[in-house]
Amino acid sequence: MEFLAEKESEFAHIIWENAPIKPGRLAKICEPLLNWKRTTTYTVLKKLCDKGFFVIEDKIVKTVISRDKYREMISNTIIEEEFNGSLADFVKAYAHNGEIPFSETVKIYKYIDISRIL
Predict the structure, then answer these.
(1) pLDDT tens for each residue of 29-43
(2) Whole-angstrom distance, CA of residue 35 vs CA of residue 107
(3) Do 33 and 14 touch, CB atoms closer than 8 A?
(4) Disulfide check for 41: which of 27, 31, 91, 98 has CB 3.0–4.6 Å away?
């Protein structure tokens, strides 16, 4: 799994928020948000299509990998590579930076309970 560079990630989030979308319309959205010219938008779009994140069909940009799937892939990669596959070690490292807010703790317990059912 390849991580997206910072600007690629910003661009991908714009696509995820607006897809399906025509490339020309996407370029107009990106001009003020990313300060990109149309050619830059098309170049980076082609790059992300080549990486398999998006596809252009019938002159429409469509999502191949959803934002949630990308986040899942990033999370799994980080946990595998940096924490030897240990989610507990990841949470420990995260919590070490400060207290986990109660609302986040509730969400974590909820996700753990749901994963037990599945």
Answers:
(1) 999 999 999 999 999
(2) 37
(3) yes
(4) 27
Q: Which residue has the tokens 């599945």?
A: 118
Calpha distance 109→116 (Å, rounded): 11
Instruction: Please give the C-alpha separations between residue 64 and each of 30, 52, 53, 103, in angstroms, as whole numbers.
Output: 20, 7, 5, 32
Boundaries of domain holding 118 = 86-118
Reported pTM: 0.81
Question: Look-up: residue for tokens 């319309």?
Answer: 25
pLDDT of residue 58: 97
- Spell 60-85 as b/e; 16+ CB within 10 A means b: ebebebeeeebeeeeeeeebeeeeee
Residue 48 structure tokens: 């992300």
| Structural domain includes residue 1 | no
63 and 105 in one domain? no
